[in-house]
Structures are given as C-alpha cells and as structure tokens.
Design a protein that fits this description.
By secondary structure, the chain is mostly helical. It is 52% helix and 9% strand. It is elongated. InterPro entries: DUF7344.
C-alpha cells in the first residue's frame, strides 16, 4: 500500500492510504493513464484541464494538437471534468481544483510507476520471462551436474559464465526497455509508442 500525506485547508496533514486496488482502478482507463502520463511529464507543476484535454484528444485520435476539432476536445474535456479527474482526486493521485480548472500531481503519483508493467500485444511480462530463464538455468545446472551429453563438452565454469551472461544481458535489456516505457518520460504515453 502506498502512503501519501495530503494537506487540507485547515493546515493539518491527515494520512491518506492509496491502495493498490485504487491505483489499478485509476490505471484501468486509457484517458486516466494519459492524464497520469501528462502529469508525470509536468511534475511538479500543475496543468490546466483544457491543455490536458487537448493533448489527450490528440493522442486518442492519433493527430497533432493543432489538428483536433472543438468537438474532440470538448468530449475529452467533459469526461475529464465530470468523471476521470474527480475519481483520481478522490483516490488521492491528483489534486483537482474544478473552480480553477487546474490539475496538480500529488506525491502518490510517483508511486504509479511501481504498478505499471506495460505489456503490448503478444509480449510476455518480465516476471514470466525471468521465471522462464531461471527454469532454464536450473535445468542446465542439473544437466551439467549429472554430466549429461552434450553438456560435458564445456567446463562447469563455462556453463556458469553462460548463465551469468544470460541474466546480465536480460537485466540490461529489461532496464533499457523499462526506461523507454516509463510513464511521463517519453513524449507520448508508452501504449502509443
């Protein structure tokens, strides 16, 4: 569970718990994921709901912001104002001031990265990949230990180095991949790249 301190108007600082379920509910909707991406790009600054609606409408339609129509922008603006941003505010990941039309990130927004494992199309999650490579390493170690053919053709040290290289290569690839898919880092949200 992520613990977040929110400051209310009275000056006290009540602790607000943002559960994993609440974060997953926020991230379950594409428009809210796009809003999170925009806010993470703008951190620690606020963003006007109109600017947010304009960029999200452009992403949804696969066009530049200058090309969106008033109807496309209004549709997103209305949904953000009436549904998505109040829900995100209630959970505690944003501070939505409806009167000013401004959205600000909260400290809980930083925890969102911990729950994002973007898997596109037919890709497998990294956790499944590492489980698979660990299984292969165990089977290989067993075959080498039992002196099974053709594993006896290389020394035990060579096989150990091969396993270490496989895990190192996987870790470097994973690090690069997650850096490319980090919410708020690239220009477009990870699901559009």
């Amino acid at each position: 569970m992520a613990s977040v301190q929110q400051v209310d108007g009275g000056g006290s600082e009540p602790a607000t718990e943002v559960s994993e379920d609440e974060l997953f509910e926020v991230l379950a909707n594409q428009r809210r994921r796009f809003a999170v991406h925009l806010l993470k790009r703008e951190e620690p600054d606020s963003i006007a709901i109109g600017d947010m609606a304009e960029q999200i409408a452009a992403w949804e339609n696969g066009i530049e912001t200058a090309e969106i129509t008033g109807a496309e922008r209004k549709r997103v603006y209305t949904a953000l104002q009436q549904s998505h941003l109040p829900k995100m505010d209630n959970v505690g990941v944003v501070d939505f001031n409806k009167d000013r039309g401004v959205v600000e990130p909260t400290p809980a927004l930083q925890n969102v990265d911990l729950y994002m494992d973007v898997v596109e199309g037919r890709e497998i999650p990294w956790s499944t990949y590492y489980l698979g490579i660990s299984g292969v390493a165990v089977a290989l170690t067993g075959a080498v230990w039992l002196d099974a053919w053709p594993f006896v053709l290389l020394s035990d040290m060579a096989w150990m180095i091969a396993i270490v290289v496989a895990f190192t290569f996987s870790a470097i690839t994973h690090k690069y991949y997650t850096a490319e898919m980090k919410v708020g880092e690239p220009e477009e949200p990870p699901e559009l790249t």
